[in-house]
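User: Quick one: structure for sequence A, then sequence B.

Assistant: Sequence A:
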Amino acid sequence: MTPLQASQLQDRFAAVWARAGGTHARDAFADLAGRYGEPGRHYHTLDHIRRCLRDLDWARDAIAPDDTDAVELALWCHDVIYVPGATDNEARSAGWILQWGTGIAAANRIAALVLETVHDGMPASPAGRFTADIDLAALGCSRMRFRHNGACLRAERTDLDDQAYDAAERAFLRALLDSPRIYYTELFHARYEARARSNLAWRLAQPGPAGVTGIRR
């Protein structure tokens, strides 16, 4: 990330943080950026957040105006805590907004949106569905990008050998492919569903532990 890109990200974070009522934006961003830049992260980085923000901006007109800042802040912090193999990363990331966002009236709502990125069923609210869909939008990217993302995700899981990783990855991807819908909003379903299913089917057809797509946890 170049200094200009870092500055632009910080400015954007500070703007939405202030609109939501947050204080100490510089300190909050420094902590957030430091966590996304931890050694060992290859996919769950600020690059992932930048891609999420691009999809948010593309979808902005379809999101209720009262929801956009909450969705954006949920995306900013949904992977701020990432411990490979941990099952409470999303819950701890939700806790981050509650810790730092003491002046944000919607902090509890934002924390609830973060929990939608567990992807364990259809979110109850439109804001939750957009948050979840944006997080998974990368599944519907080009095959080349899909493979690159998979290599990055595999690189994060040094706690698993190839066989264990392959089994866990296949279980996660098969569950997505077997679900009636990967994307719950009509907008993301129309844009990404077919390509995401093609990417998942392609990966599952590959023999042996290839590590080319990657599990989320």
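Sequence B:
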Amino acid sequence: MSAADLARLQFAATTGIHWLFVILTMGLVPIVAFLHTRAAYTRDPARRAVRERMTRFWGQLYVINYAVGIVTGLVMEFQFGLSWSGLSKFAGNVFGAPLALETLIAFFAESTFLGMWIFGWGRLSRGAHIALIWLVALTAYASAYWIMIANGFMQHPVGYEIRDGVAHLTDFGALLANPNALLALLHITLAALTVGGVLVAGISAYHFARGSEDADQFRGSLRLGVVVGAVASFFVVIAGDLQLPLLRRTQPMKTAALEGGDVERVEARLVQEHGPGDYVFAHDWLRLSMDVMTIIGNTVSTVTLIAVFLLRKDWLVRRRPVALLMTAMIPFPFIASAAGWVVREMGRQPWIVYGELTVEDALSPVGRTSLAVSCAVFVAIFLALAVTNWTLIARFARRGPSATQLGSTEPLADEADGESAEGSGGGPGGGPGDPGGDPGGGRRVVVPVL
């Protein structure tokens, strides 16, 4: 393999694995925020207790994914300097600001709000605690916006001019309103909600299928996951189609490969505009990835839509094969999302910044041996982190709410002996860990041990 192939393989593998963390983070956090809000404003103490318990259960899965995923994000940043210094040199004046903002939001603002939410159980007022989880959701999507602005410039560069062989930003507004970035962000948002909804529905259905002692507590989560998955998976197909007219104008070879167009005519046009080059790159991979994404997307949309109607007759709860089918669907939205990422990134070859900078020109002057070693190390680290993440998520998902550590509380030594540790919160209504209770609560808050 050439140095360019090794660098591309490294970045493709690490970014693809990191993307699985990102898509679940974006899909799960609004569901957790909604569940927390609904639990906090439920008046009936018994129902509030169940809903808060489920909020902590899903919140713990989210925290695990976020904690491990952010490590992959930190490691991945080093690759820009290691393998792609040409990209930084050419597009750093444009590309750098969105990347810096994404880093500040994801690694500082989002993580700060999440930490305050984790440690705020039983300590913060109800309104403040709810505001924190919604701020976590807001910053997660703000982070996604900035990274898509950076990626959108690579896909469809706008708002710049070339001076002395370097891109300089001339129109910040055009960069922020890049249609390639905004349409992709809409598509990704709906894909993330599909992932989150199917995961919630699948884990909930699993507990009904196995007859878990906590199964009845998953009834509300099952409904929410099925509805979110059905709505999001329906509109994600529409959002994907909205990108095609823009791609036909800005990346004609990609659409020609995907739609069976006249590839030779498009290649001749690109040679005339940009000079000789390999413009017919990996078209078989593009079509295969597009087919995988389309088939899975339509299947998930159909199954979740049918599941919405099955909820009315309680078949998802009573029919074990149907419940197991929902559980078996969990990995498929992840696969579809990864296939969509392949279509987006591979389809603009040979460019790293479309029409301006090729992959070969962006490559750092690093030897094949160094790239081979770094590729092996990076991929091994990312695979280890992915296995760790999914092992932890699967373990806590199987154990159910009874084993949840996030937000649970323990009585202090001077409390009455017979008082339940889960009945903390000290607020009106006496619900367990009531976020509207006394900020101190006379208890210690237990955070998850990963």
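The radius of gyration is 24 Å. Residues 267 and 392 are 48 Å apart (CA to CA).

User: Thanks, that's what I needed.
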